[in-house]
Amino acid sequence: MKVLVTGGAGFIGSHVADGLLAAGHQVVILDNLYTGKQRNLPAGATFYEADLRDQPRLAEIFAAEQPDAIAHQAALANVRDSMTDPATYAQVNVVGTLHLLELARTHGVKKIVFASTGGATYGEGYSEDNSKLPFAEESKAQPKDNYGANKLSCEYHLDLYKQNYGLEYVALRYPNVYGPRQDAKGEAGVIAIFAGAMLRGLPTKITGDGTQIRDFCYVGDIARANRLALESDASGIINVGTGVPTDINWVHSVLSAVTGYNQAPAYIPRPAGEVLATYLDSSKAKTVLGWEAEISLEEGLESTVAWLRGMDE
Ligand SMILES: NC(=O)c1ccc[n+]([C@@H]2O[C@H](COP(=O)([O-])OP(=O)(O)OC[C@H]3O[C@@H](n4cnc5c(N)ncnc54)[C@H](O)[C@@H]3O)[C@@H](O)[C@H]2O)c1
């Protein structure tokens, strides 16, 4: 099938595009290169430099390409920036998604897979009550920032396009995704930040006492979930995490071993609102997509560090 991958010059989107091309699909990438990079664009994909807010330009691309499906990865994805510039976040993340949904509807697109978020959607409502963990799809959505609220709004819009127009969708709720091509400035770039500093022998900082729990999933596993969601009849919201609760101190120690780093981290005060614990129950993904995370954190960190070393050469 022909798949329009928005954000395909970015970290996750470029891996989604790679995975689709490797499976024999045609790939068209739409990205405004805000955080995306030309060097991430896979050979074999058609590229349009375009902004999700530019509806007439998107209409031209749909008319020219007539995609069968969309993997919608493009977004502004910095939680803190979403609090200082909420209107721009809504314009890109919500209005941009509505532009795609309207064009999908009018051009006969069969399915859209949306990059949603487990971390920001489930929020920190239960961080004092870990008995609610891991979060499953039916856990209460309680975003605490505009970025999470944007993603949840998009899930509602996707669902009403399915109800009203029969446009199929899957909203994949990602955990903390990491791997090659991740920018240290990203939403959840703690691994990229640590690894980059360690390889340069620079100091590292951990907020709080480092016992915060996250669910770290390798980007190749996330790309495979996108492909399976596009190729299958699955529908609705699906968590795609490892289900392995991992604390930040442990990530620091494994990365230290992989990079040969021997400095202790500096512990700095925990920012207000930082989520204490989040990880995802992904049993639905196993049932409906036949998906589960395959790459262990140790393997994923090895390949991330190998990629970073290659970038420095
Ligand atoms: N990285 C994570 O851990 C994580 C976790 C949960 C959800 N997500 C979601 O996954 C998706 C991909 O995230 P990523 O980590 O690869 O980030 P990224 O910044 O590398 O990718 C986002 C891409 O969107 C493009 N983009 C931004 N604004 C645009 C616009 N107005 N028009 C067109 N393109 C635009 C950027 O240039 C970039 O290539 C995002 O939707 C993000 O919200 C990521």
Structure overview:
It is built from eleven helices and 13 strands. The longest helix has 21 residues. The two termini are 37 Å apart. Helix 1 crosses helix 8 and helix 7 crosses helix 11. The mean pLDDT is 93. The protein is globular. Strands 3-2-1-4-5-6-11 form a seven-stranded parallel sheet, sandwiched between helices. It has a two-stranded parallel ribbon with strand order 7-10. It has a domain of 217 residues: Rossmann fold. With 313 residues, it is an alpha/beta fold. Nicotinamide-adenine-dinucleotide binds next to helix 1, helix 4, strand 5 and strand 7.
Protein topology:
Layout: E1 2-6, H1 11-22, E2 26-31, E3 46-49, H2 55-65, E4 69-72, H3 79-84, H4 86-106, E5 111-117, H5 118-122, H6 146-165, E6 168-174, E7 176-178, H7 190-199, E8 205-207, E9 213-214, E10 216-218, H8 219-231, E11 236-239, E12 246-247, H9 248-259, E13 266-268, H10 283-289, H11 297-312
Parallel strand pairs: 1-2, 1-4, 2-3, 4-5, 5-6, 6-11, 7-10, 8-13
Antiparallel strand pairs: 9-12
Helix pairs in contact: 1-8, 2-4, 4-6, 7-9, 7-11, 9-11
This protein binds nicotinamide-adenine-dinucleotide.
Residues 7, 9-13, 31-36, 51-53, 73-77, 92, 96, 115, 117, 174, 176-177, 183, 186-188 line the site of nicotinamide-adenine-dinucleotide.
